[in-house]
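Section 3.1: Structural characterization of target chains.
Under the original work plan, the team committed to producing a structural model for every single-chain target entering the pipeline before any wet-lab resources were allocated. The record below documents one such target. The sequence was received from the expression subgroup and is listed exactly as submitted; it comprises 285 residues.
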Amino acid sequence: MAAMAAGRRLLQLRPELRPCLRSRALIPYPSWTKGMGRFRYEHPPRRLSSCRHGDFEEGNAAAKDKQPWRLSSDEQLIHGKDDDGASKKYMRKNFADEFAQLSLEEEQIDDEMGGISESVVKDVAKAAVELLASRSFTVSELRKKLRAKKFPDNAVDSVIADFKSRGMLNDGYYAESFSRSRWLSSTWGPKRIKQALRQKGVPDAEVDQATRRVFQDGHSNQTMYGISEDSMDHLFAQAAKQWQRGQSLPLENRRARVVRWLQYRGFSWAVTNAIVRKLEAKHPP
């Protein structure tokens, strides 16, 4: 197929060689003769040809007499004009050599355009699917995992771009799912969630949008602390458990224990102070 493509490319670049290409049979017509008691194969006789700006002439005795030399089987005579308009003749390799060269160039161009083989892309896609089947990944995490398997960077980028276009990779969905899970299961606050998502390579815009959706719950009933009333109520319920576990401790120790718990989970000082004061009011020592 590459040879046929190179042939078409040669005709586009050198239309004057079209008669030459037509005059040479790519597949010789067989000539079978009977002799010596068996059949044998004979190639058709080779005919000499020359190309002169699209003018095709069969090589015959008269043409040979006009030529000061005879063309070898691997050369052809080219007529043209130089920059001064003077006619000139020069020898060059025949179109078969140029045909072979263009064929090689076509294959090289195809490799450069594709950049990667189809088999390599399939291997990368298979590895990516196996990773995603175990758990979710951000775009950055999946890229690092695939590159760690020694796959070419261009193949990895191609697969990731394809997965993103098909919705198999989405940092926005990942960020929101991660935020909600850490908030409900571990009571992580916005600050710690944002830090974790940035370490996973999620863009800041996706991080901010995800935390707003989780802590503001899509409602307008936000408190002065930047999170919704429902989120504050949930946080107070979790903090109350920590407050009750330290009921045998002095008040200062109980207070310090809850403060460390809230600060470690990424809540601001304003939120922490509001929760501690509410705990002291509803659960006095």
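The radius of gyration is 39 Å.
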